[in-house]
Specification:
The chain has 224 residues and is of the alpha/beta class. It has a domain of 145 residues: Ribonuclease H-like superfamily/Ribonuclease H (Nucleotidyltransferase, domain 5, 2-Layer Sandwich). The protein is 36% helix and 13% strand. It contains 7 helices and 5 strands; from the N terminus they run αββαβααββααα. It has a 5-stranded mixed sheet. Strand 1 and strand 2 form a beta hairpin. Helix 2 crosses helix 5 and helix 3 packs across helix 4.
């Protein structure tokens, strides 16, 4: 029986390109929670030591919950600096999900105990950052620092949803993490929206699909 081929570690060539340009503190930044009907969007920023290889690090959507939890502790222990932050459901309603995602990422960078002078941002949009940035589509599967940020953001948000399960029982937050599954949509219809539901997203309650028909592009098990 052939052995499954191990995935090669992510290559920090984007980080090294930034260092070669003279930057001295390069962070990766990503968010989780664009697609859910409830809760905040959570972002993380991570500065990894040059040359550090974290076995198994990848886009958080491709990892099991157990692996994400393991990497969460390892990333925090081994990073030069990390910061996490959020934009609330109320802020999402006020400024829209894209602007709220940008706000959360800027807050995460501001939370870094070691300031970054360059940022690699997952996606194709970056607004309002105080340092030079480079956007990277699919960056959480390319850049180690963005992948590390995606793990911290995803785990932090999932843990927040576990707390929501206790505060607002009946919605199933621990299971669906706020994503627009049928179970979640039915619970909102039966119980009405909770204070942490995004009012501007509730038009998706009657969506037919459980994953891609919500306001964000992330799938229910994905990051968002």
């Amino acid at each position: 029986m052939s052995e499954r081929r191990k995935k090669e570690p992510l290559n920090p060539f984007l980080e090294e390109e930034a260092y070669a340009q003279g930057f001295v503190s390069v962070c990766g930044c990503d968010e989780a929670g664009r697609g859910p009907l409830a809760g905040p969007v959570v972002a993380a920023a991570v500065i990894l030591p040059r040359g550090l290889v974290i076995p198994g690090l990848d886009d958080s959507k491709k990892l099991s919950e157990k692996k994400r939890e393991e990497l969460f502790d390892l990333i925090r222990a081994e990073s030069v600096a990390y910061g996490t932050a959020e934009a609330s459901a109320q802020e999402i309603d006020e400024i829209n999900i894209l602007n709220a995602s940008m706000l959360a990422m800027r807050r995460a960078m501001e939370a870094l105990p070691v300031p970054a002078d360059f940022a690699l941002i997952d996606g194709n949009t970056a607004r309002g950052f105080s340092v030079p940035v480079r956007t990277v589509v699919g960056g959480d599967g390319i850049s180690p620092s963005i992948a590390a940020a995606s793990v911290l953001a995803k785990v932090s948000r999932d843990r927040f949803c576990m707390k929501l399960e206790q505060e607002y029982p009946g919605y199933g937050f621990a299971k669906h993490k706020g994503y627009p599954t049928k179970e979640h949509r039915d619970a909102v219809k039966a119980l009405g929206p909770s204070p942490v539901h995004r009012k501007t997203f509730l038009r998706f309650l009657d969506a037919g699909a459980e994953t891609s028909s919500g306001p964000g592009k992330e799938k229910q098990q994905g990051q968002g």
